[in-house]
Amino acid sequence: MITLNNVDWKEIIDNLPTSGKSITANPNMWNSNNIEYKKIFSLWTDAGFNLNSVKWENFYPGADFDKKISENIAKELNLKELRSWISKLEPGYCAPWHWDIDDCEAEYLTQGTPKRYSCFINEPVKGQILILGDDYYFNQPVGTIIEWDHYHQWHSATNVSMEANFMFHILGIPND
After folding, report:
1. pLDDT (tens digit, 9 = 90+) per residue, 39-48?
2. How many of the other CB atoms lie within 10 Å of CB of 6?
3. C or N terminus of the chain, fewer CB within 10 Å?
4. Residues 6+ apart with CB under 8 A from 62
5. Are 140 and 120 in contact (CB under 8 A)?
6. DSSP per residue, 47-116
7. What is the fold, at CATH topology level, of the domain defined by 2-174?
8. Which range, of 6-10, 56-60, 85-89, 166-170, averages the lowest pLDDT?
9. CA–CA separation, 3 vs 64, rounded Å?
């Protein structure tokens, strides 16, 4: 794991808009031309998930926070940034088991194989859990970055705490 110590994540979180782009289990919000979304939705419904508990919000550089933050992190990780965002998972909600679907994936792959990293950006709170493959992450210090085995790795998250959980995510092509 890598640790970022030069970012004031509390200030960034405090200055985010009150709401971001809401992601829910409502299939009408997804790109219906991409069959990968239908696969994920079928997995959730077949498992009997309470679809009302599936919700998180995303915040994007340049729109919701200073894009210099993402640019600096990409530089530190030696990446050509493809995409980055901050996710917010409110208490009582989850992001069920899935892999991330990106409508721009074909374009990304023309540049190489992307790498993905996630960074814990709020103070550790009991009940905030990220599951990435076979690994469970909780109570991680602010600034801890995990490198994914593959950008399509299966993952999920849940928040059974009393506070919102924020994470920073970045996808990029390694610089030579």
Report:
1. 998 999 999 9
2. 8
3. C
4. none
5. yes
6. HT--GGGBEEEEE-BTTTB-HHHHHHHHHHTTEEEEEEEEEEE-TT-EEEEE----TTHHHHHTT---EE
7. Jelly Rolls (2.60.120)
8. 6-10
9. 23
